[in-house]
Amino acid sequence: TSIHLVTTALIRLMRLFPFTADYQQLAQRYNTESRFEMEEVRDFIIMHYHLTRRDDTDFWNHYRTMEIPENLSHRLEMFKKNGYVWPDRVNLFRVDSWLQVMMGQGLWPEQPHAAGRILSTEALLNQLEQLRNLIDQRLKALPAHHEFLRQYCPSSAPV
Which of 76, 79, 122, 126 is the most exposed place for a label (fewest CB within 10 A)? Predict the structure, then answer.
């Protein structure tokens, strides 16, 4: 995360570098984009601590029960009420990242997202079967672990 933040800050600086004396708008845009990014990262990290079930030390009790930012509270409530997850504004953490942490830490929606009812059970099972077949095909095309090592890392391959 730190390397990503440094990299995006440098890229942002290059994009918004003031080559003229009128730099106020560029500086304001830089700060706005940086704030969005930092807040999304902050929320993602806080979520891990807030949703923990650990209560064996003062440390965990403090972070589990602390007040959280409004945006994160909204995100968690939306997921809890109807299973809705959206990507952050800067696309550092994808939908599946948010989902995996929420569910992995025990936050489950009270009801599934309504989009799950668009397909019939039969159509949904068919889609899942197609996905399973695609994954199986792709896995069969991959080399065995020892073959991969021999081809791409010959110095570390077993003799």
Answer: 122
| CA 112 – CA 150 distance, rounded (Å) | 46
CA–CA separation, 147 and 37 (whole Å) = 41
Q: What is the mean pLDDT of the chain?
A: 92
Tokens 């668009």 locate to 118
Amino acid, single-letter form, for residue 15: R
**Alpha-carbon span 75 to 50, nearest angstrom:** 13
**Percentage of the chain surpassing pLDDT 90?**
74
Average pLDDT rounded to a whole number, residues 92-113: 93
Q: 101, 48 in Cβ contact below 8 A?
A: yes
Pick the closest to residue 79 from 107, 101, 53 (CA basis).
107
Write down the pTM of the prediction: 0.74
* Distance spanning both ends of the chain, measured CA to CA: 37
Return the closest-CA partner of residue 69 out of 96, 41, 100, 31: 41
